[in-house]
Design a protein that fits this description.
Layout: H1 3-14, H2 19-36, H3 45-58, H4 63-80, H5 105-113, H6 118-130, H7 134-138, E1 145-146, E2 151-157, E3 161-166, H8 169-182, H9 200-213, H10 224-235, H11 240-247, H12 252-255, H13 263-267
Antiparallel strand pairs: 1-2, 2-3
């Protein structure tokens, strides 16, 4: 995209988009330009519709990836190129709802047990104990740990919001053990170069290796620790509004999804089969 890429990146930065969003939008636009092999300012709405059809029919992308492309395209043509198009003519795809995969308390405990590296185990425990996103774990500073007030400070997370979360007494003990061994200076979990934080890809690799070693077959990523944090709190009776604040969700609707995966949501709802009159045992097999 050349000059247009630079202009779009500048516009994204001016409007305060996160680094990950900038990278995503730029990559989506690059993919579309590569598809047409023409300068993007020469493309028409009809061309964009053709590309949307290509994403759906040929690439069969999921709705979330499709809508990311739409966001990038809309931004580029309306903000960067200042086209007077009606953005409704670049439609989104109907969204779906996917319930998160949650680990049981026993599976979380087993996951921690199989990690021999203290730094890696502490990192995973921190993600679960505080319900953190991967980027929030990697960007924790030593100064964010407040042992006096038993709080962790999460600075400028998603949506550029600060928040505080609880600091588990068990986690504090593990963090102190870890600090004595590693002596991190600035970042709580340092990368290969001490002045840089651990990369997100490293966190994913550590989790995947631990999951395999623990024999967990569920299709769950490290983000599942955050889902498990919220679900386990809900199952223990914590108010959903409090969970919303701990997770840093702007909307309660985002947090309410955990009511559909909490165990008591099903435990307290009997199947109609169990309340039918008659014997509870299954009929004997006939020869």
């Amino acid at each position: 995209m050349g000059e247009y890429r630079d202009r779009m990146e500048r516009d994204l930065q001016i409007r305060g988009f996160s680094t990950s969003t900038q990278q995503c939008y730029l990559a989506r636009m690059k993919a579309m330009v590569r598809f047409f092999m023409r300068p993007p300012d020469e493309l028409t709405l009809e061309d964009i519709h053709s590309y949307q059809l290509h994403l759906t029919r040929d690439q069969k992308v999921c709705w979330s990836s499709f809508n990311q492309s739409v966001c990038a395209i809309r931004f580029f043509y309306i903000v960067t190129l200042k086209k007077d198009w009606d953005i409704r003519h670049i439609p989104y795809q109907k969204t779906g709802r996917k319930l998160p995969v949650v680990l049981s308390c026993e599976e979380v405990a087993k996951l921690f047990q199989v990690v021999d590296n203290l730094k890696h185990r502490t990192m995973l425990m921190t993600a679960y104990a505080a319900g953190l996103r991967v980027s929030e774990v990697t960007h924790l500073r030593v100064s964010d740990v407040d042992g006096q007030r038993m709080m962790l400070r999460i600075e400028q997370s998603k949506g550029r919001q600060d928040r505080y979360v609880m600091l588990s007494h068990k986690l504090l003990a593990v963090l102190r053990e870890y600090w004595k061994l590693e002596h991190p200076r600035h970042w709580l979990f340092e990368g290969q170069r001490r002045e840089q934080p651990l990369t997100r890809s490293t966190v994913h690799k550590v989790f995947h290796k631990a999951k395999c070693k623990a024999g967990i077959t569920k299709r769950v990523s490290v983000h599942g620790l955050r889902h498990s944090f919220a679900t386990h709190l809900l199952e223990s009776g914590v108010n959903i509004r409090k969970i919303q604040l701990l997770l840093g969700h702007r909307s309660l609707q985002s947090t309410q999804i955990y009511t559909h995966v909490a165990k008591d949501y099903l435990d307290h709802t009997p199947s109609p089969l169990d309340i039918l009159p008659g014997p509870s045992s299954s009929p004997s097999a006939t020869s």
